[in-house]
Amino acid sequence: MSELSPETRAVHLPRPPLNGSAPISTPIYQTSGFVFDDPAVFADGMGRPDGAFVYGRLTNPTVRALEEAVSGLEGGSGAIATASGMAAINTVLLALVGQGDHVIAQRALYGGTATMLNELRERFGVSVTYVAEDDPEAVRAAVRPETRLLYLETIANPMTQVADLPAMCAAAREAGVTTVVDNTFASPILCRPIEHGADIVVHSTTKYLGGHTDVLGGVAVFASDATYRKVWRFSVDLGPTADPFAAWLTLRGIQTLHLRMERHCANARFLATRLAAHPAVAAVHWPGLASHPSHETATRLLPAFGGVFSFDLTGGRAAGERFMSAVKLALLAPSLGGVETLILHPATTSHRALSAGELARHGIGEGTVRVAAGIEHPEDLWADFEQALSSS
Question: According to the model, what pLDDT value does residue 3 have?
Fold first, then answer.
């Protein structure tokens, strides 16, 4: 290459071989595409998710490492990493649901998912039947010839209902219906839905998998290789691609996932138990409490009960607003799963697009406060909550 001009040499930098070694940490392959010596290998890579790396919209070595990591954690046959959790959800919905199809979904859903189902109904005539998350007979009764999906959440956002995955997935499988489970709130540490019969698992990797409030991402994991390849082909044209740097940050977060989940769950237990005994609190919604309607299901399916819970103050919305304005250590912010404790008001944030009737169907009150427990010292968190409660 000695004959090339400096301008050209600056573009075509050398690519040093690894010389038989391998990096401890997955490198960030920050490139939009890859070069080939063999046209046949180039062409083959365009047509399958496990072929040669061709173009970043198809996949990337760092992104594939994340896909393989989460697929391995969930026990899947393959995975598709995306730019956000909603990108993962919408990729699955749009790939598998068409005009005039029917979806069965649990009543308690993340607001973005519920909004998307409404959008599918309005745009494409997709009908949706809502059922309780622990009622397989309702699934059997709702099935139609055009039913394509059963959509569940392992732990629902924000009232933490726990889906009876074995029973619900079995009812769907009897009818030949694909089950999709959002496992974001549980993470693969607390639950692996494929082991309970789910066909597809989705995550917002922004949350517990990333774990540090510094990355957006999502992933869909598939039990069936055939379904994985079908959805991958659709995703290539849809373009929800994960960024290599975001994938790298998520991989870094996954390495401490099990340690963080222990502390998230322990802090949630500590705070939920204290709040349940406080006179200013009307109700606490956390499946680890015996009073929660999903307690038996959660005890049967989960080794711990998650790091997110909600509670209602006796003073209603006004009291909730005073509480959220008074906390000093906990942060009033969106999302969850990071090391910091975060709080929000679902009716005006995560579920703001829902009508009053839809909020009531989800069990969300005007004064409901959602808490995503971080990994701080629990006594410090309680001292903050206690002083905030005195002002509410």
Answer: 80
CA distance 228 to 172: 19
Q: Supply the DSSP symbol for 48.
A: -
**Residue 272 and residue 288 in contact, taking contact as beta carbons nearer than 8 Å:** yes
User: What does the CA dihedral 322, 324, 325, 330 come to, rounded to 10 degrees?
Assistant: 150
Q: What's the rounded Cα separation, in Å, for the pair 69 and 364? A: 35
Question: So what's the pLDDT on residue 1?
Answer: 54
- Residues of the chain scoring pLDDT < 50: none
Q: Which residues pair with 198 in a beta bridge?
A: none
Find out whether 151 and 199 touch, Cβ atoms under 8 Å: no
Residues 32 and 40 sit within 8 Å (Cβ to Cβ)? no
H/E element, 107: none
Strand partners, 310: 285, 370
Question: What residue segments make up the domains of the chain, in order of their start?
Answer: 59-254, 257-390
| Four-way CATH pick for 257-390: 3.90.1150.10, 2.60.40.790, 2.40.30.10, 3.30.1340.30 | 3.90.1150.10
96-129: pLDDT as tens digits: 999 999 999 999 999 899 999 999 999 999 999 9
For tokens 């993470």, the residue is 187
> Within a 10 A sphere around the Cβ of 96, how many other Cβ atoms?
19
Given strand 368-372, what is the order of strands in its sheet? 281-285, 308-313, 368-372, 342-344, 331-332
- Helices 378-390 and 316-326, axial angle in degrees (round to 10): 130
The CATH number of 59-254 is: 3.40.640.10
CA pair distance 110, 105, nearest whole angstrom: 11
Rounded to 5 degrees, what angle do the CA atoms 316, 274, 287 make?
A: 80
> Would you name the residues annotated as active-site residues?
57, 110, 182, 207
Q: From CA 247, how far away is CA 232, in angstroms rounded?
A: 17
Residue 39's contacts (CB-CB under 8 Å, 6 or more residues apart) are none
The neighbour count for residue 240, using CB atoms within 10 Å, is 22
Task: Tell me what pLDDT residue 308 has.
Answer: 98
